[in-house]
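DM from R.C. (forwarded with permission)

"hey, sorry to bug you on a friday — could you get me a structure for this? deadline for the figure draft is monday and I only need the backbone to look sensible"
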Amino acid sequence: MTPSSKKASPAAKKAPAAKKAPAAKKAPAAKKAPAAKPATSKERAPRQRTASSRAPAAAPAAPPDPTRLAAILRLLEERYPHPTTALRFENPLQLLVATILSAQCTDERVNQVTPELFAAFPDAAALWKAPTPELERIIHSTGFFRNKAKAIQGACKKLVEKHGGEVPREMAAMLELPGVARKTANVVLGTAYRLATGVVVDTHVRRVAARLGFTAESDPEKIERDLMRLLPEERWIDVGHQLVLHGRALCVARKPRCGECPLAPHCPSAGTLGDAGGEAAGE
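My reply, with the result:
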């Protein structure tokens, strides 16, 4: 007799549970790159300017009509009949050196320094070969003495090597000298040689010319071009000096003395800048 059922096979052994794979280690967070330092002025790429982003050019000043200009020139001539520089000099070289020294310095201070300077070093060769510490000592009180000493010696070296120690009479040759720009060249050529090569533009001329409506420019070379177009060539030298003198005497920077100014009836700025009244003139 066959068995009605077979014995049940023993229960299959449970397979061991698979071991959990170890959790993957978290990758370390990437370090933040340090913020880029702002570019220095040397590293910055030049900014591209479009036509629409350009600042508009200054509008030219309306030139004074001939009648007003003639009146101003006549009054300047009456008040300053023999205009010249306040710097003391005996020859073109001395004037050149004194003008270099006058940058950011009063003419009075320069005049205190130059007698000792020219007694010690009387010509271009002597100034070129002067011991730099001694030169700097003498001109120290004029300010920026190291730069001025370098300019004086560089200019004198060029004068000796290229012009026989003499100050040239041409603008182009003057501008080749270290430390010499158009203002200095115009002072020397106009005052020492009476050559009308342009108009001296210093801080006084710049201020007075703008107040008189002679120019709307701020760049000295553009102001000079405006004045050269406006003024008769034979007046370039004297008017330059006259505007300097007027800027020192009456048309001072902070409180112009409009109440005492003979040009006031012809000046578009008269009475608009604050009259100094009886205060001391000069700057």
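R.C.: lifesaver. Confidence is low (pLDDT under 50) at residues 1-15, 23-27, 36-61, 277-283.
me: no worries. The first helix runs from residue 66 to 79.
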